[in-house]
Amino acid sequence: EDQVTQSPEALRLQEGESSSLNCSYTVSGLRGLFWYRQDPGKGPEFLFTLYSAGEEKEKERLKATLTKKESFLHITAPKPEDSATYLCAVYYRVNKFYFGSGTKLNVKP
Amino acid sequence: DGGITQSPKYLFRKEGQNVTLSCEQNLNHDAMYWYRQDPGQGLRLIYYSQIVNDFQKGDIAEGYSVSREKKESFPLTVTSAQKNPTAFYLCASSPRSNEQFFGPGTRLTVL
After folding, report:
1. Is pLDDT of B79 > 90?
2. Is A82 helix (H, G, I), strand (E, B) or coil?
């Protein structure tokens, strides 16, 4: 069964406390994996696209990595403004998209 | 200023009413999508369109209808047949089924 699972559902960090969010997937024919940030009441904001195992992308305090079964979003020394829900999505086969339910990150000062 | 706009931001529907949500993009993207987001759940695909005058049902198309008469516009109608329409609706566009870029969303509430 095609599935995308994000963990943990919620994560509370102190400012400066690095951690990782996980997105595991069981789909065949992966064509791309996307990470988004979503603030309350707003549309998701695109962060990264990863296409193949071993690929990494970085942006400020965020780094996304991809293996054949999962992706990680590493957050280094987070700040309160990094608080948001982080969504991952997979694009697979022909025109198939599947979004995970997200990880809600809360960074306390 | 390129982007995706959705209107209205908030919409209230009475029982038995059809309502239409607007989505416009000036990114010159071929593909456009409509998603529904409920609390604690991932985005679920309602309809998508890869080209003008063509669209496909997503996973939860029942009770919804769309049209794609112009490349820039992809309106979504929530019909009275949709029994539980209260949700946050998101429109997205993408260049040839790659990463999707989202609008700000419309929150629909049934009175």
Report:
1. yes
2. helix
The answer to whether the peptide bond before residue A44 is cis (omega within 30 degrees of 0) is: no
Nearest chain A residue to B101 by CA distance is A46
Task: Calculate how close chain B gets to A66, using CA atoms only, in Å.
Answer: 16
List B residues 36-75 in contact with A (Cβ-Cβ < 8 A).
40-45, 48, 50, 56
Identify residue A27 by its one-letter amino acid code: V
How would DSSP label each residue in B18-67? -EEEEEEE-S--SEEEEEEE-TTS--EEEEEEEETTEEEE-TT-TTEEE-
Residue type for position B92: A
Q: Which residue is closest to A47 within chain B, CA to CA?
A: B99
Report the SS3 class of residue A101.
coil
Provide φ and ψ at A41, rounded to 5°: 75, 10
Give the chain A residue nearest B38 (alpha carbons): A101
CA separation for the pair A59, A73 (Å, rounded): 11
pLDDT, greater one: A11 or B41: A11
At residue B2, the pLDDT reads 67
What residue has token string 């969504």? Answer: A87
Residues of chain B in contact with residue A90, where contact means CB-CB under 8 angstroms, are: none
Share of chain A above pLDDT 70, in %: 100
